[in-house]
Structures are given as C-alpha cells and as structure tokens.
Amino acid sequence: MNTFYTRLQPPSLLFLLLFIWCQTTHAQVSNKKPAQSAQIADYQGRPTIFIDKVPVSPMMYALTHAYGGRWSWEERPSRNLQSFCESGIRLFQVDLHFEDLWMPGQDQLDLTKAQKQVRGVLDVCPDASIVIRLHLNAPFWWNVQHPNECTTYANGKVDQRNYGPPFNMEDGDIDRPLRASLASSVWRKEAGEKLVEFCKRFATTPEGKSVIGLHLAGGVYGEWHYWGFIKHEPDTGSSMTDYFRKWLQKQYQTTENLQKNWNSTIFTLENATVPDTTERNLTTDGIFRTAAKEQRVIDYFKAQQEVVVEDIEYFCRLAKQHWGRPLIVGVFYGYLHSTFSRQAIGGHIMIERILNCPDIDYLAAPQTYWENSRKLGGSSHARGLVESTRLHHKLWMDEVDNGYLQANRALDFVRSAELSDTNYAAILRRSTLLPLLRGMGMWYYDFGPQRSTGWWDSPLYLPNIKADRAFFEQQRHQPYLSVADVLYVYDQSHFYYLKNKKTAISESVIDQGVEDAMRCGVVGDHIYLFDLDKVDLSQYKAVMFVNCYKMTIEQRTFIMDKVAQQGRTIIWNYLPGYLDGTENKLAFVTALTGIPCTTFVAPAKPSIQMGDVAYTFDGLLEPAVAINDLQSTPLAQVTNGKNEVVVARRKFKTHTSVFAAFPLQKSDVFRNVFREAGCHIYQEKNDFTYAHDQLILLHTATGGIREITLKNGKKVSIALKSAATVLIDWESGVVVLE
Questions:
Q1: Best CA proximity match to 56, nearest among 46, 64, 48
Q2: What is the pLDDT of residues 41-69, one digit of tens each?
Q3: pLDDT tens-place string over residues 374-411
Q4: CB-based contact 406:421 (threshold 8 Å)
Q5: DSSP string, 337-383
Q6: 385: closest CA among 525, 504, 269?
Q7: Of 80, 288, 600, 603, which is the most buried if we count CB atoms within 10 A?
C-alpha cells in the first residue's frame, strides 16, 4: 500500500499544482476583463438592448428556478448553456433567491453561490452577458421570525407545510403560504438594504463584470402577483391593514369624506378594516360593482395594487442607483391575458404607472397560457400589450416556457432527431419568431434539466434556434415597420369594478376572443386606452375597443373627436364606457356607439348566431343588452331567447359603428367584420397569420395549400406541411425561413 501510494503521489501533486495554476490564471484573466454596461434604447424603431453601446439581438437562454436544473455549474444545465452558446446565443439568465445569499445571524450576504452561478455560465461561454433574476422575497427563516409582517388570508389560515428543500422556493405561492406581506415596511426596508449590498459588492467581483441586468422578482412565482391570488383572498394582515388606513388618509383626508364615499358611518380613518371574502366577491350590478354601494372594496383593491407597484418602483430604483454602472432592470408586469379572472386581487392593473417608471427598462411575461393559444395552430401571443410597451420606449420580453407540449417527454432520455417532436418544433419556432417579428425580444426558459436533459437539447430544435438567431441578427438592422390595419384597444382600470371571479365574458373576451381575432388573417396592433392619444391613427381602418368598459369623459370626447372619424369603422365590444368611476349608465354606451339599446334577461348560457357562425357563452351575462335601433343593420341575434338583436352596424357621416352588445367571437366573425371595414385579409383560413417588420409569419396545424394575398395585391400559393411555421417576404411572397 505504501509503495502504491508513493508511486501515485508525484503525479497527484503535479495535478494539484497544475489545477491551482489554472485557477489562478483564470482568476487573473477574469479580473482583467472589462466590466460590461448595458441599456435599452431605440434602434431602427425597436427598443433594443445595447451592451457597451453595441446593439444585440434580444434572444436569451434561461435556466429554471427549480431544483435539479437551476445551478449553472451542474452537468445538465452546463451542457444546455454550452449548446445555446454554440447556437449563437450570448444573453443568458440565471435565478438567485435571497434564500441562497441571506443567512440568519450573518451581517453580510454570502455571495458564494451568486459567483458560482455566473461563473458556471462563463465557463462554457466566456463572452456571455448575463441577467440575474433576483428573487426579493424574504427568506423562509425571516418569515418565521416575523409572523406579524406576514400575509394572512380572509378565506382561511396560513398553510401548515414545509418550505424549501426538497420543494422549490416557489412551491405553495398560489396556496395560502407563509410569506412576508407585500405591504410590510419592515420587509421592504431590510430587503432593500440587502439589494443595495448585493449591487455594490457583486458588481465589482470578476463575475459581476459580465452581469448586464437584474430581473427583480417578487410575489407569486416572482411575477408580482399577490400571494395565493388565484383561489384565495389576501391580505388581511396587520401590515396591509396599516397600509390601507394610510392610503385612505391620503385619499380622503377626513373621516367625513370617507364615510360619505363609503355610504357608511361604521368606519373611520383610524379603524377602517379590509373587506372580507363575501364583500370582495359581491357585485350589485350584474358582473359590475357600483361605486355608490361598493367603494370600500374598490378602494381596497386600489390600495393593494398600489402597494405592489410601490415595491417594484422602490427596488428598481435602488438597483439603478447602486450598481455603479449602467445596467438594464426588468420585471414581470403588465399581464392582461390569462390572469385567471382574478385581476383585481392579483393582476397588474397599474400598468400605466409602471410603463412611465424611469427605472424600469423592460417588462416580461410568459406567453399566454390560454390553451388554444399555446397549442399547435395557436398564436402564442404575449400576455401584455406589446405596442403600448413600445410607445413608452421599453422592451417587452416574452418568456417561452412551453417545452412540456412535446409529445415524447417520456422518451427524453434517448433524445434523437427521430424521437423529437416535429409538432413541437413548429410551436417553438412560432413562439420564437412572433416576439422578434413584433420588434421585441424573448427568452427560452428551460424547465427541462430538472427532469432530463433539457427541453431543447435535441438536433431537431437547436439548429432551428441557431437559424432563427442568425436571421434576426440581420433583421434587426432593418427599419421596423407596422402594417396593421386594426387597432385593438384595452383597459385594465375597469377590473376594480368587475366581479373578481370567472364570468361569462372574463375569458371569452381577452383570452378566447383575442385568440380568435389573431387567427382571422387580419393584422392588428394592441394598445391600452390611456395610450390612444399617442398613436398615429391614419394607418388603421378599424379600431376595436375590446374591453373598455370604463372611460372618463375626456377619453370619450377624444374618441368621438379623433378616432370615430375619416370613415373608420369602430367596433364596440360589450359595454364601452358603461362606467365612469362614479356611475354605471347605459346612456354612456348609447352616446358612444350611437346605437340605442335596452337591458333584457338573457338565457343562462346565451347562444349567438351571426351569419353562418354560431357561438355560445359559458354562463349568464348580466347586464345583458339588446339593440333597439331601426336605423341599424342587424348582424347577430340571441337564438335561445326571443331573437334579440345583439350585434348591429350603423353608418354615420364620420364613421361606421359596429356595436357588439354580446362580445364577438370566432375567427370567421372577426374576418367578416374587418372585411366590411376595408381591412387587408392575408388569407381566408383560420391559421395564425401575422405581418410586421417586412415579413409575414404563417403557422398552421393542418397544413395544405394556402393562398396568400400580399398587401401590394400580389397573390402567392404556398404548400404547407402539417405542423409548419414559415416566414415569407411581404413584397415578393418568397419563403425566407422554414
């Protein structure tokens, strides 16, 4: 044994010395590497990431937050990081939680894992630029030590469960978890101090020199939703109650004003409490709240929304101030679609304020989770409004996290081109190309390594990723152009007044209805009502007010004076302007649409017939409105009622008004309405079709011959395979990427 040990000792010593030399040399090289700076600025009409003043393609690869796939230095994540680097990707995102850095009883953060996490990326891609998704939620041990600063719930006790390993950090977020209240001033102060420390210390490390951005995350899944919001009723805790009372003090100044607006003498500014579950779910005008009877609930939702926005603004400002050099700062915010009919309690209603925040460079969200949008043949459109984001000179980043749609997940361990899912290849390419075609960005968020090799570790997917990146690396130098004929206009402020649970229209309008419109062969831009005055309206032949149930008098006046002009078609969906924040009036709707209407008692699940197309609403719509106007042309009736007219068209001197008292659905319906408005129709099939940036995107589940009409009048015929995604040139019709 001694002889054997002696014989091996010199080589082992040599190996050790060689290892130390390599590590020392590596550190010296890292120390000499110049620190990167980054910013978002307009380039060729697109919000663009600039690194050291050089524009880069906004395509990124991100490791998951989940155990088994989140650490960059481990074998499977490292392999995927290297594969994407070899595909041309140079932007990467990695997750870190305060739980990884902020230890109980220690004065300083432990940056060891942060450095290893960034170093793991650089080891396989030395010229990478890295964004850290930093989760600002209080560590679990902090929550245990500060129970009075934690969220409590109106509909049940805090869960008695374990947090942390072997569970993911976010597990339980949508239940009734033990989490620091987003209204806690103690958490905000201490988390802010730790964020400042992280910025000051990590920015100067060798690894920190390659960090170009911080994605600041908090709330449910880091997406700034309130804890448990999907099925539960937060936050009745002492922190939120205290915040609510201070908010009311600013809002009303005196108890007399409070009691007048609440129509109650029970509460004062000093003893006001948050509403209970019953109050929050009560509505007194069908699916709508009335301010005269429910102002207390409306005020609570406004206060809860504002405290989340204040958190975001506070942390983003600290990051900008203390990093020490320019970096980009982004957040998950601006979700409109797929918010589970729970927008008031956990949505992103104060989007205008976030868009105007100077310390936020980009907004992000997973692409819509609406099943018909995600699956093969769907649009995979963004959950937020891309064109409004552009109007505020911010970048929108789609998170592509749909690898679970692969058909052969069970065969992951034997990946090959033959076993990979060609259907999913078309989904992935569509999900990648759409945000880039809209002049924005995206990242691949890879949950795969926690289960197997990685969602995109396949010879079927990686070449496409490489080709997509190379194509748009060139495309970003071309001037960005919009060819939309339709302007879709949305509102979030009405969610304070809308029933905070599923209704007949909560998903059929902003989820299913929008998806149907995306597949009608007509291209549209999507903005918020508060941005309407920032848009050049001359290009749009039709303007559709998708869910603008609340409008101010100023907005109504602008619409009639500026929008409903030049022969344009205005499409009013359901009850435009029905609310003004004080009253609910059908007269407001008639004044806007120019088409008289009356309420009626609708069937429990009303069915609509519009031409050859029929569709049914999954629930009672109340208030239900029928059109009563002899000067209008009826377009649709309720077939399981008394044939009440619910969609009609009327021409005025300045514009044409199409009033859909029951919201529009089905691609054929949208296509026919837009055809009458003079909009360009690229194709008659119900495939997802999109055009911008001098390109046309076609995505189909079924395949077949497609007759495409280009905007210059030229007609081209393209044979598409089933499960296909292609890009064609919008002038010639030539396929440029397939």
A1: 48
A2: 999 999 999 999 999 999 999 999 998 89
A3: 999 999 999 999 999 999 999 999 999 999 998 765 44
A4: yes
A5: SS-TT-HHHHS-TTHHHHHT-TT--EEEEEPP--HHHHSTTS----S
A6: 525
A7: 80
